[in-house]
Amino acid sequence: MRLSRFNTRYPFHPYPTGWFAVGFAGDLKPGDVRPLRYFGADQVLFRTQAGVAVVTDAHCPHLGAHLGYDSWVDGETIVCPFHQWRYDTGGKCVHVPFAKSVPPQAKVRVWPTAERGGMIFIWHDLHGAEPQYDLPDYDESRMIPGAGFRKLHDDFGAAHPQDVFENGVDFAHFPGVHSTGRAVANGTIRTEGHRFASPVRILPAGYEGPVTGVDVGSTVDSEVIGGGLSRVESRTPSAPGIVTVYYVSVTPVDETLSHYFVHQFFLKDDDCPMTDAQIEHFTTLSREHGLKEQHSDGKIWPYKAYVEKPLLSAADGPILKYRDWYKQFHPEVA
Ligand code: FES
Ligand SMILES: [Fe+2]
């Protein structure tokens, strides 16, 4: 494969701007500490006793120990395993054993952190700019407990987040890759700054009728939020009153690997006509199907090239419009 000046198959920088998942909220209990490696750098993720998830650069400014190995959480601080300097949630060193004062420059860099949809996100900007937007809040209070799945894939190669989220507007891949009926636009695309919403209808296989102003098949409302997250809501006639939600976030580890985080769960409308048994049947099937379907796209990504000027046909979705919108998340580099 031909490599670009970034030493990747893509003609843009491997580390876009935005919020990116670094873990699942439910896997990090108060007091837990995890070493991380994202954006070609080392970090540590921990949860304080009060429940705050914190990500800082990994290496202690004292003598360089990694804060993700053999360290521990004490209250709202993390304690370095080497000489037990303590850092608070703002990255400031607040205690040096046997010393009366703390060197004022003793600080570790803190990555802005947020939790949404059962995932922990960090803000990344190549040039270190503060977050330019917050992640939106969705009403997910009607979540069906215990259903769905969450999974981290490290087997999808070095797919750039832009390439992965292009899937949502790639109408022509649905029938072949996902064995669905034909996909068509279901209303207009809404782009609002860092948000790109594209409503799609998946027609029943073999359907030949009109495609606009009809209520047939499933609806898929996917939204890409900044450079690192996509959230998808879908409804299908076989499960009235149930919304299937996916969060997918793609986080570059370095230019040779991306982590693909996916969380599937379900929301139930108040007037959902299904019985508990029917709902359980549907969510169990959807979970199995969803786990498998990640590989349907995932098996393509490691080996595909990035075609800058694709040969698009009438069956293709608004791929160029999407790429144009995504440009804002590519950092400027000389
Ligand atoms: S290296 Fe962290 S306290 Fe010394
Ligand atoms: Fe797909």
Structure keywords:
four-stranded antiparallel β-sheet, 2 domains, 4 helices, mainly beta, binds FE2/S2 (inorganic) cluster, eight-stranded antiparallel β-sheet, Naphthalene 1,2-dioxygenase Alpha Subunit, Chain A, domain 1, 19 strands, 334 residues, binds fe (ii) ion
The helicity comes to 10-25%
Task: Spell the H/E element sequence.
Answer: EEEEEEEEEEEEHHEEEEEEEHH
**Known CATH architecture of the largest domain:** Alpha-Beta Complex
Main pleated-sheet profile: 8 strands, antiparallel
Dominant shape: globular
The hetero molecules present are: FE2/S2 (inorganic) cluster, fe (ii) ion
Write down the overall mean pLDDT: 96
Give the strand tally: 19
Task: Tell me the number of helical segments per DSSP (H or I, 4 or more residues long).
Answer: 4
Based on CA atoms alone, the radius of gyration comes out at: 22 Å
